[in-house]
Design goal:
By secondary structure, the chain is of the alpha+beta class. It has helices at about 1-20, 255-260, 305-355, 370-385, 405-425, 450-455; strands spanning about 25-35, 45, 50-60, 65-85, 85-95, 100-105, 110-130, 135-150, 155-165, 170, 180-185, 190, 195-210, 215-225, 240, 250-255, 265-280, 390-395, 430-435, 460-465. The protein has an 8-stranded antiparallel β-barrel with strand order 1-3-4-7-8-13-14-17. Strands 5, 6, 9, 10 and 11 form a 5-stranded antiparallel beta sheet that branches. The protein has a 3-stranded mixed beta sheet with strand order 19-18-20. Strand 5 (about 85-95) and strand 6 form a beta hairpin. Helix 3 (about 305-355) packs antiparallel against helix 4 (about 370-385). Mean pLDDT is about 90; it is low at about 15-20 and about 285-290.
Length: about 475
């Protein structure tokens, strides 16, 4: 134990003595950038490469002119993601009437760029040569704390519906959820990530600009050691586009990152610049002389101009503060107004969707409204009365039974009966722009069973755009 203490004391004495021959402490600001990937290793598709950037502050303590250890805090952006050039999936589901079919999705240009922002804390051991122009190398690791991670979908997809029961594949029927070359939504999706641990290296040249200032220029690389993707948050359904029987025109979407990524581990390489300011060198502060200094007789100074300038400065600062507060309040009110307008628009859109839902299940040749159908129309009438600016058409539909002449007459009578009921309930006749029969030309579901035909025999209220 005594021998150990002697060795440690000797080493400490050496470090203190040698530390006075160079800048023992270095405080620095740094910035860098290059290329990065998130190493998703997807089960389908391939990784994307994109730009990366980082900036932050650092501190280095040097034990000797050659060796030191550094720590810091950086804000880093790692970009990556994945792409799938040939995507094809199927989903067995049912349409709104309950008929089973195979929902087919395909895409040839799907991309999902992912951007991860982190606060990184590096711990690096640095070796450097001496001289005005020196070479340095640093090796260590970083802890990355995720701040945000967002993915965006890019590309288009095509959907089809295959009905094995009638051996027919439907396509290009948007009202039934079958579309061609429809763009993926552009909204961003948040990902849940865990803390990252990375190996890090840096190599370059240290330019000594002065006794206390140095500029580092070099190359750096970060390599993620662990998977930071939170797989517990991943959805069970791995289809990128999911059919929704109750709203076939509105798809649900999953992210490829959550569905197909094996992992997320940052990988980056690029150039870095570091401006360092040293202190703690042998040239310390000069000792203060103990020689007696004779006091200097002070003369009265007229500082009224200085006081006036200070008062003006304080007044200008207060005016600027008030202007900033007023601008902030105006921005807040504008944001609240915009949010209220978006909410109102969303509410109207939902109400329009309900108004335009079909009133179904007419019996064959039935034109009079049943009590159940009147109740459905009452719901739509209430929403129309809440939105007096909405004008509309009323269309009557039939199934495929009967000839065109009969179906034309039955469809029109259904529309006229619905119109008469709505007028009796107080709807302004000027808002009804017209009635018409669609015959059997626009079925909701294939006319392959009596149940489907009852669904197709209907009345629809269509909002005029």
């Amino acid at each position: 134990m005594k021998k150990t203490i002697i060795i440690l004391a000797t080493l400490l004495t050496y470090l203190v003595a040698t530390a006075q021959e160079f800048n023992r402490h270095e405080f620095s600001i740094n910035a860098g950038g290059g290329i990065s990937s998130l190493q998703t290793k997807p089960t389908e598709g391939k990784d994307l490469w994109n730009w990366t950037g980082q900036a932050g502050l650092g501190y280095h303590f040097f034990f000797s002119p050659h060796w030191g250890i550094g720590i810091g805090a950086n804000f880093a952006i790692y970009n990556g993601g994945m792409s799938i050039d040939d995507y094809s999936k199927t989903q067995t589901t049912t349409n709104p009437s309950g008929t089973a079919f195979e929902f087919q999705v395909s895409s040839s240009d799907y991309k999902e760029p992912v951007q991860t922002m982190m606060v990184t804390i590096p711990l690096m051991v640095q070796y450097q040569t001496t001289g005005k122009t020196a070479f340095y190398a640093a090796l260590g690791g970083k802890v990355g704390i995720p701040v945000s991670a967002t993915g965006k979908t890019e590309g288009s997809f095509t959907t089809k519906g295959k009905y094995d029961i009638i051996n027919v594949t439907y396509q290009d029927l948007p009202d039934y959820g079958f579309v061609s070359d429809q763009a993926f939504p552009e909204n961003e999706t948040d990902l849940t990530l865990k803390t990252a641990f990375m190996a890090s290296a840096e190599l370059g040249v240290k330019w000594r600009l002065g006794a206390k200032t140095s500029l580092y220029t070099g190359l750096y690389a970060d390599y993620g050691l662990n998977d930071i993707l939170d797989k517990e948050a991943a959805p069970a359904n791995t289809n990128l586009v999911v059919y929704q029987p109750n709203t076939p025109t509105q798809f649900a979407y999953n992210t490829a990152t959550n569905s197909y990524a094996e992992q997320i581990a940052p990988l980056a390489a690029g150039i870095t610049l570091r401006l360092a300011f040293g202190c703690g060198s042998r040239d310390g502060a000069r000792p203060v002389s103990t020689e007696t200094v004779k006091p200097v007789q002070q003369q009265p100074v007229d500082d009224s101009a200085a006081r006036a300038a200070e008062a003006k400065r304080l007044a200008d600062e207060e005016a600027a503060r008030q202007r900033a507060a007023a601008e902030a309040e105006a921005n807040r009110l504008a944001q609240e107004k915009a949010a209220a307008e978006r909410a109102a628009a969303e509410q109207i859109a939902k109400q329009k969707a309900i108004i335009q839902e079909p009133v179904e299940r007419y019996a064959l040749s039935q034109v009079e409204l049943t009590d159940a159908q009147k109740k459905e129309l009452d719901e739509r009438i209430a929403l129309l009365q809440q939105n007096p600016n909405l004008n509309f058409y009323i269309y009557g539909h039939t199934c495929d039974l009967g000839g065109d002449e009969v179906n034309e007459r039955v469809g029109l009578q259904r529309a006229e009966k619905a119109k008469a009921y709505m007028l009796a309930k107080g709807i302004d006749p000027k808002r009804i722009l017209g009635t018409a029969s669609k015959l059997d030309r626009e079925p909701i579901v294939p006319n392959t069973s009596e149940e489907n035909r009852r669904i197709n025999r209907r009345v629809e209220v269509k909002i005029a755009e």
